[in-house]
Structure formats: structure tokens, C-alpha cells
Amino acid sequence: MKKIESFKNVLFSSALMVSINLIAVGSATAAPDHPPCSASAQSRQLDFWMGDWAVSAPGGTKTSASKVFLELDQCLVVESWDGGRGHTGKNMFAYSADDKSWHGLFADNEGRVHVFEGKVSAGAAEFTGPSRSETGAAILNRLKVIRINADQVEQTWEKSTDSGSTWSVVFRGVYLRKKS
Question: Which pTM does this prediction carry?
Fold first, then answer.
């Protein structure tokens, strides 16, 4: 009886190990075969924006600061900005290989959070996303980042209260690359 019980234990252990190995192999082969972000042309479309920037409004004298860098094995574009007077925030953008779309998140230290979807092409990005006004009215936000040249980028943030028929610029920043 002890031999049968011992045989059952060995058989169960062997079956368990084979099952675990099959699950591991199945998981590895079932994963999508995406290139790493560092080698993905789509994930590299915002590389023109990388760097340390001095940001000002056209014709304005106040200068803000922005640093744009990559995180998560170069899959996440992060803009860390300081608008002055204690107003700071982070903007994050990433290309999803699963749905073939760009997604973004804006958050600041005043409790504002916006979620975006968008498109990026050579030297230009446009993201849109909904929000609400303080009175609860629907607002459509549009964020554009345009490469002017290697050392200058322009970002505009527009809002629409009529589902995108008309737009009002609420922020326009000229980014000048800081010299090292």
C-alpha cells in the first residue's frame, strides 16, 4: 500500500511539474510579439520633444520650465513641468502596441486630471479628451505639440464647449531648448 501511495505522489508531482512547465511555455508563446519600445518607430515619434526646455508665452516675459524624458524602458514619454508660482504637473504619453493608438494623461498639483487619445506623426502630435467645467458643462480639450526646429517646440491647449465646432486657446507655450 505504501508503494502505491508513494507512486501516486511521484505521479502527482510529475504531472504538476509538467503542467507548470506547459503553462509557462504557453504564457511565453501567447504573449504578443511586440518590439521593445526603444526599437519601435511608433513609440519614438515624440523623440523630437525630449530635453530640457525654457517655456514662455509668445510676447510674454515669464519663463517656465519643462523637462521631457523617457521612462519604463523608453515606453513612456514624461513631461515634468513647473509653470511658476507653485503650479507644477506631469504629462505622460505612450503608444499602445495593442490598440495602435497614443494615449496621454495630464495631472497637476491643483487637482486637474485629463485623459487624452491622439495621433503622432513626424514632428507633430495632437491629443483630444473630454473634461467638465466647474459648472459641469462638457468640454473637449485639444493638445498639440509641434516641432518648429531642433531647438524649438510649440504646445497649444485649446478648449471647445460646442463639441469641437469652435476652439479657444487657453495655453500657448514656446519651448526653447536649454543650452547645456
Answer: 0.79
